[in-house]
Give the backbone structure.
Amino acid sequence: MNPICIVDDQPYICSTIASILKDEGYQTIVFPDAESFWQRLDTINPSLVMLDIWLPGIDGLQLLKSLQSRFPELPIIMMSGHAGIETAVAAIKAGAYDFMEKPLHLDVLLDKVKSAIKHRPARSDSILPSDTGLEIASADLLMPPGMVEVVESSVPQRTLRENVVLNGVGLLSGRKTGIILSPLGVNEGIVFQTLDGQTIRGHITSLGNFSQTVSSKTFSANSTTLDNGRQQVRTVEHLMAIFSMYGITNALIKVDDEVPNVDGSAKDFCDLIVQAGIEEQPAYTRVAVIRQKIGVGNDDKNEKYLYAEPFEGFEISMRVDYPAPIGEQIFTFNPEKRSFAKEIAPARSFNTFENIEMAQRLGKVGGGYLNSHIIMYEGKVINTELRFPDEFVRHKILDLLGDLYLLGFPIRGRITANMTSHGYNQALVERLYRAIQSSSR
């Protein structure tokens, strides 16, 4: 039988549980924190996880959500000596199989373990792995030189020809918001400016958790947020995808705290760039060339993974496999062979009615979700007609394009993705950035 994993920062608790279970014939592996446990998940397949709620760094409830997303059938027993009934209920609602109070009682422990191992919950067709939560992904900081190299290309840098304005509703806030796009000089990059004059670079180093030095980080899965420590700008991914695909290397974006989402796609942003016009600048664009395969996650179709590898040009291959009405969808996008404006930009965000309703009750998202998503309920799309039969996987590519441009350079290489959201996207970009730093040294 596969091992039972015990995640608890109290050595006495870990050794006691491990000893009891060993006497009953179970194999166990002990971990003192969420990060070390998550790193091992590429090489082990637990039959059960016994997880303490109060952990250093990433807490047990955060880890529970990530485990539910990655391993929806994995039984998890939460443990705590200080949690009240509300926390226990929250854990069960979040997907835990059961909850135990410390100190643990021998008979109760063994009964719950035996029951949990037999329990393999069927995945509900009405539930889509939610992008309204968090993802834990590897973001190893030590990268050997030579994996990614930045070279000068023959393509000129580009900016906008004139100022343009777009108004809409914020996805997360549900409030009316807007942006002003303006030209910017050579080598200035993509720069966001908030209404109080704060500037935030459209770059991987502006992610809120970039300065963390742990090798496994918690990322927001539902959108990409940039932060300078005083102000933030949320939901930048669709706009960043537009800049990437139109070759805009220098631009200023004046914004409140959230880029308007409009209909959940990037179609309106395409129209905005056409309206502004594009001006080539007297300097060349630098390109990040992938020299060796570099990735995040385990290359298994049943797990999330994302990697970049050498390729002459640029290409993304994305696979998703969700319950009805989505199913398995695979799409490959190469901008030299397909039209971004016609085939990727119009693809909209998606989620289930249940997930959106829950996120709204928790205050994680605003009313903008209801008007800017393909909404599914009981295996059917309930609020719109699909623009493409495989609109779901196309939208995942749109998000990935935007997150990749946080690297600060266009990429020369092939990107392969399986079931990823923004968390994995951002983790890959951080690894690419660290690899560039290592090569430049």
Observations:
- The chain has two domains: 4-122, 137-440.
